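[agent] plan:
  1. take the single chain provided in the ticket
  2. run structure prediction with default settings
  3. attach structure tokens to the ticket
  4. add a short note for the reviewer (M.T.)
[agent] executing step 1
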Amino acid sequence: MKRVLFLGLLLCGFAVGAKAQAVDTDVCSIVKNPASFNGKIVRIKGIAVAGYDEFIIKDATVCGFPVDGIWLDYPTGTHGKAGAVALVTVQPARNYSGPYKAPARTPVVLDKSKDFKQFDSLLSAPHKGMAMCLGCVKSTVSATFVGRLDAVASPSLKRDKDGKITDFGGFGNANAYPARLVLQSVSAITAKDIDYSKQEDALKGEKPSYSGPPNSGMFDAIAAAQKLAAGMVGVPAADTIQKDVAVFGKSGEHNGVVVNYGNTNELPKEEVASKDSPDGVQYNLTMNLDRLDNNGQVLTIVHGGHHISDLKSPAPGGEAAPLFVGEYNAWTMTVLTAVMSGQKTLGLPGGDLVWNSAWPQGERNDNIDKALRDYLANTAALSQ
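[agent] step 2 finished; step 3 output follows
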């Protein structure tokens, strides 16, 4: 009887912890000193962005840090629709030799209110345009968010003298976000449509070149990406793209890189993976096929492969490079692959046009650079 009573009291304690009074703060205060908010229930006002490989809350102003956003996750089992299209994460493999202890965190129960359903619907409504636009949704959403804040002092992956990963960093894409909000409730919702006129103006008068999902039949995106990369003879940076797609190995090969399919918006399990890996680390690429056609999958293999290649074997001196650099380089390879696959245009979330075959030859590099920097600084809330 005493044992049952103790268990009841313990469960009540967890319930009280999850319903603790929220601390009122803001995005900039959190990213300035994330560890001071670790484990707290917080209330913040911000702008939610569901992009290509971001699902974040950012402030209306620039905070001035390398990562100016907080990663957003729904509790496990939410079955929401919004979120990133693709996501790269790192975790210890079964044969990881270092110490690892999964963090103990207070459970969060999401209030699936009318406000939440509206929020999720707004952030998952796709932009329906003529051009291929990876991860492009119709709007961003300003709101008040309440949830558990998970944080680390620094999201950088820690490595030993031989370059082997010994600590797995933070949250979200490439484990590069120092803070994550596990959503408990959302309210005061205001949507703002994204201006995609740059992308649509580029294809005025032409037939639509992008049909979007769903896909038809079985499609091996890895094989298609590797075949495309192999044919880039004499193309600048072709060796880099070939290296990026090579990280996925051959069919059936267990090389520590795993491709998953499904939503990217729920709290991942923080645990040791079920398989071994050559370096004791598992690298995961998750793709939401409901938002990627076959061409989009190929570009995602290149993009995700570049992130994984950087994480597995960073360039000397680049081990602690900010996410801005990793994203800029991954997008550069993605754009080049789009060009080589015959795409006339390529759009980015937030409305930027990163490729247009109609651009004069001498303006292309500058236009790509400008579009990437604008997208990363404004939509993705990253800085160098």
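[agent] step 4 note for reviewer: The longest helix spans residues 294-312.
[agent] ticket updated
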